[in-house]
From TrEMBL, chains A, B:
One of its GO terms (molecular function) is acyltransferase activity. SUPFAM superfamilies: Thiolase-like. InterPro entries: SpoVAD, SpoVAD_sf, Thiolase-like. It comes from Ruminococcus bovis. This is Stage V sporulation protein AD. It comes from the Bacteria.
Length: 336, 336
């Protein structure tokens, strides 16, 4: 059912199917260019919860319930849930999934976690370990700022290369049968670290990882950008996207016209003061579930690469003078 | 190649094989009852590195290299590495694996991560997505104390229910062919939270999760403790082990004579001042790779359950008044 293509890519002969998906975002994301596409909006950043961390768990729960509703599944149908977020010890995920009684596998790939989760779900469904699986990831501007940077009250100035963590969540149901969008290939990324140490320039740290994974995938599958309708990256933002184009151009691959970055799609950089664009586990997840999969179902495009990118450092590692390791995981999606 | 047994258990018809394994521990662990079994000992808690965090990454690298050496594999043979640790953003794993150029999938299940990683590796190998995979996890007393509790210099008093985080790492190579120990069944655990809020009593928080997973497994496979030579738990310690026995006894399962807990095996509680026993991702991992798999290869026992347990809270969640969600993942190991 699964075969390996080239050195690193996996092909699903009987492709796992995304039978349901849902997105939940906050107010700022709802005010952006994709506002009308998201399934649910919390205008209150606490989503009625006493803390932002509990709010982020609530976002995940709503996205997961929305995805199950769309695929007509129930928690007891789900064999495994792959969940992840940016918070220490993945608390958004463990607390959000606590009430559902589903075998739980915590995933951490920073902002690449949505693609990682879909790959893990596809491995289990495609390999016969599961019939129905779920993936859910989230991020929240307020929880991320206070964990990674400064207390919000401090009002630290953000440089122009900084990205704005998306408050949002996305969830998909990956099944071994049914109607939906197929996961046909996957490439798991290697850790790539080019020595970038500026935690306000994640795009530059992640672009070389995206480049490595995309190039690996083209080599493994003997395809070129011309074979795809769209290539979406998770959240390289402006700086990282320009770097990616440049790196791929040097190898003779021009993706400028078909590449879109979720971090650039979700906010209007001219009016929303987000600097280099959006970021976070919830960025790629909410844009995938809010816009990309919907557009594919509508027939707007049917042959898509989705590459989510992650920066794997922590404040502790950064304070100890470490550079930022990047990673990028790729899935190839097709309409049935 | 893989079929589902009962509601939650997966059976590998062509079992993935642990073809190599290795363990690395610190001084205190080397002075414990299992000291002579570990493959490598760092008597310096910094392992020659400038910080404890970098030392923990070094422990992982040494364990991984040891496992590859035993299975006669090289980094370029490994299709995926599943790695995890207790540190925020899994930095021990991302920094340790950065230099190996292997597709990387970060796993987080707190102290259950070794079992989770072996299950993910078995899903990919058993399902055809990979030929050779690696799993590596670690923990370090000094990095864990300062992240989860107090600066070491503070000298906080530890209550008798507290466990001592093991400084150590274990790594296995999981392959689709070769000589070694077979992974025949796996049960992924659900999140179980009985409302325990005392972060100095992890055993009590994790025991109900271990109970849930073991009971699920017995029900799914229609087996009883009599069918196994040994049942090992990851790190329930004294408090959690007693609770587990009690809970299973209430269901008519007596495991007292065949159950061993890695947290109780690794230290001598009478002389090593560890209170309720050892804990940490590196506890189950180093005991599995240092003692259990070696004993199986020697023929001491050949039909074993290994259940690693994790407590999924964070200091932030705890400060916000949350209870501690537990999880436990089970693998059934057999000699070839």
């Amino acid at each position: 059912m699964i075969k390996r293509v080239g050195s690193y890519t996996v092909e699903f002969m009987h492709p796992p199917i995304i039978t349901g998906y849902s997105s939940v975002v906050g107010k700022k994301e709802a005010e952006g260019p994709l506002g009308k596409y998201f399934d649910k909006i919390f205008y209150d950043s606490r989503a009625g919860q006493p803390t932002w961390e509990k709010a982020e768990a609530k976002f995940q729960q709503e996205a997961f319930i929305g995805a199950m509703t769309k695929s007509k599944t129930h928690p007891e149908d789900i064999d495994f849930v792959f969940a992840g977020d940016l918070l220490n010890q993945l608390i958004s995920s463990s607390y959000s999934m606590r009430s559902f009684n589903i075998p739980y596998l915590g995933q951490y790939g920073a902002c690449s976690t949505m693609a990682q989760g879909i790959i893990m779900a596809s491995f289990t469904v495609g390999g016969g370990s599961a019939r129905e699986t779920a993936v859910v990831t989230s991020s929240h501007f307020c929880t991320a700022e206070r964990q990674y940077r400064y207390p919000l009250e401090y009002g630290g100035v953000r440089p122009q290369t900084a990205q704005w963590t998306v408050t949002g969540s996305g969830s998909v149901i990956v099944s071994n049968e049914g109607k939906g969008i197929e996961v046909v290939n996957a490439t798991v990324g290697k850790i790539v670290d080019k020595g970038i140490k500026d935690i306000n320039n994640m795009g530059a740290a992640m672009a070389p990882a995206a480049y490595d994974t995309i190039l690996t995938y083209f080599n493994d599958t003997k395809t070129t950008p011309k074979d795809y309708d769209r290539i979406f990256t998770g959240d390289l933002g402006q700086v990282g996207s320009e770097l990616l184009h440049q790196l791929l151009n040097d190898d003779g691959y021009n993706i400028d016209s078909i590449h879109r970055d979720c971090g650039l799609m979700i906010f209007d950089r001219d009016t929303q003061d987000v600097h280099a664009g959006g970021s976070g586990c919830g960025c790629g997840a909410s844009v995938l579930c809010g816009k990309i999969l919907k557009d594919m179902e509508k027939g707007k495009y049917n042959n898509v690469l989705f590459i989510a990118t992650g920066a794997l450092m922590s404040p502790t590692a950064n304070q100890q003078g470490e550079s930022i390791p990047g990673v990028a995981h790729l899935i190839h999606l097709k309409c049935q």
